[in-house]
Design a protein that fits this description.
Layout: H1 9-30, E1 34-38, H2 47-57, E2 63-67, E3 73-74, E4 77-78, E5 92-95, H3 99-112, E6 116-119, H4 124-130
Parallel strand pairs: 1-2, 1-5, 5-6
Antiparallel strand pairs: 3-4
Length: 141
């Protein structure tokens, strides 16, 4: 085969299939149908409240699930104690909890089958410094 020659039709189709699969894998992050806000709060001055508010009052047209073990409802929406208690599938979770809880919550999301995570948290530097860096970052697909 001559170097630099056109690629075969099958190679082009394989590449197109891979690109399509890559785009499909981003759908839960870029256009989810269901979102859980873990760490949603009833207090208006918190990030958990603001995140939920933005989804509810913004242009998001999917289903939003507030998750807070200490609330029955937030912004007149039924709240769940854990992501695992939400009925049906959750495509994306926004995690807004203290750093020391992120790993546990991310594991619960994995068990639930959540396909995309956004973590908005504070205190990782302090948390990991206190643990003498014995805990490693573990973000897995």
């Amino acid at each position: 085969m001559i170097q630099g020659a056109e690629r075969s039709k099958s190679e082009q189709l394989m590449d197109a299939g891979e690109q399509s699969a890559n785009l499909e894998s981003l759908k839960p992050l870029l256009s989810p149908k269901t979102v859980a806000v873990i760490g949603a709060s009833r207090q208006a001055d918190t990030i958990g409240y603001r995140l939920l508010q933005c989804l509810v009052e913004g242009r998001f047209t999917g289903t939003v699930y507030p998750v807070n073990p200490n609330a029955e409802s937030i912004m007149a929406i039924k709240a769940y104690p854990s992501v695992q208690d939400i009925p049906g599938t959750v495509e994306m979770a926004i995690i807004a909890v203290p750093a020391k809880l992120v790993s546990k919550v991310a594991d619960e999301c994995g068990k639930k089958g959540v396909r995309a995570l956004i973590v908005i948290s504070d205190g990782f530097r302090v948390f990991y410094a206190k643990k003498s860096l014995k805990i490693s970052y573990r973000i897995t697909a």
